[in-house]
UniProtKB/TrEMBL annotation:
It comes from the Bacteria. Keywords: FAD, Flavoprotein, Oxidoreductase, Quinone, Transit peptide. Residues 4-110 form the Beta-lactamase hydrolase-like protein phosphatase-like domain. This is TIGR01244 family phosphatase.
Amino acid sequence: MKINTVDTELSVSPQIAATDIAQIARAGFKTIVCNRPDGEGNDQPLFHEIEETAKKAGLECHYLPVESGKVLDEDAEAFGKLLDSAPKPVFAYCRTGTRSITLWSLSRAGKVELPEILTKAKKAGYDMSGVVRRVANKGKTPSNAVDGKFDVVIVGAGAAGVSVASSILSRAPDIDVAIVDPADIHYYQPGWTLVGGGVFQADETVRTLSSVLPSNVHWIKSAVAAFEPEKNTVLLEGCRVIEYGRLVVCPGLKLDWHKIDGLDDTLGKNGVTSNYRFDLAPYTWKLVSGMREGTALFTQPPMPIKCAGAPQKAMYLSADHWHRQGVLKNIDIGFYNAGGALFGVKEYVPALMEYVEKYNANLMFSHNLTAIDGPAKKAWFTKTDGDGNTETIEKSFDMIHVCPPQCAPDFIRVSPLADQAGWVDVDQNTLRHKTYENIWSLGDVMNAPNAKTAAAARMQAPIVAQNILTDMGRGPGVAHYDGYGSCPLTVERGKIVLAEFGYGGKLLPSFPTWLINGKRPSRLAWLLKEKILPPVYWEGMLRGREWLVKPKVAKPEIVN
């Protein structure tokens, strides 16, 4: 007998025998529910045999039979009422457990978020994609009506989504493109580091979403609930169905603040801040500009994260300010990195280390922030040694800049589009999905081994646009992405180490070394970051103007 745990209230199982009841009772279950009709199989025990043994063991036992492949709405409603009223935990079974988990999924619809239902079912070993529309429709069978049909549907209206929409429409204005996003506003996230460093004002990094969308795109202001790639449909909240010819998936990633115990309750106060949130970046500058002495901690979680240099950028700009104010000697700086290196591309590390030494910052590798107590001004880190042994380290602080753990959005992780780690599974060269040929992905959500930066999305957007149009018979050929990403490391106010690299850490500089040597701090690179890149973003990238990033048709490999 295999017990598949769904949550604290329910577990499901394939067919059981009366001899399994003792084990079920020992496991702590209080109620058994049979969802398999008597007589369905020659080798199955009748329900009364199970019931008699269960009652002798002190367990409640209920018979709620459902015909295989025919879970009705009223069946799910009856199961939900039983689950709510029965002594818990409940053990439900059928031939394989699928009917039981389906009944649970439908009965929880409207009470539990769809991604959570799909996640719990998946962890228990069951795929609920076949009933996802019913779950999205609060457990009721929906109509098969389609609410909209488009040549291209783009999920996500961040940097990647708006840019790829503009790149498609700049090439083919007659293409019917829809972009799906519930947000009202659009952020220039690369600017938040400079907000936290007192260089930009927060309002310089935000505009209304309607003002940056292409005029000829259909904006569907809704959240995505699920994908049905076999049907070429996207399911929106409220069980609205959108059909596509081609799909582009780029909703960004999820900042998982809750993974650090106590963090969510203290963000924005008690000296706890993060440049990874628009509303918190000004608080970073308030803390930095007001600090004269004490301990300042800067954290970096395990990879992958967006803009892997951002956690140390915050440290450098803060330390530079304290240096200029003459108070650096009074401040103990610690950089607590869950990883084992300062930066993933070794060629840039020497220049960064010069600043680490200049600011007398303590580098603490293999230290992952796990808990924080804002009022007590204490943080706890899990330290891991080379043999995998761990210990908990407590550290007091006056200010702490936190980079949160990050993962794919919930609706992506439980979808058929995701790999084992939860990211959209693409070919790293074409950015086309490995399974579904009419789906592409770009930006932070996909699993190509590149840096998750706005510069990467800027390079990817025209490549995806060209490849989609080529697939439609309207493009010059397939373009390949080389993994390009850029991380302007703001080592001091007025100087940047401009890291540019592709797959495998290959250096991919955009400028000759006599102009900008990316391995050394540069004033020209700072000018690029502060003055040039923001208008390039707003007026170039988001408008489909592919300055310096026009894709080229990939040359086929010659096989000897």
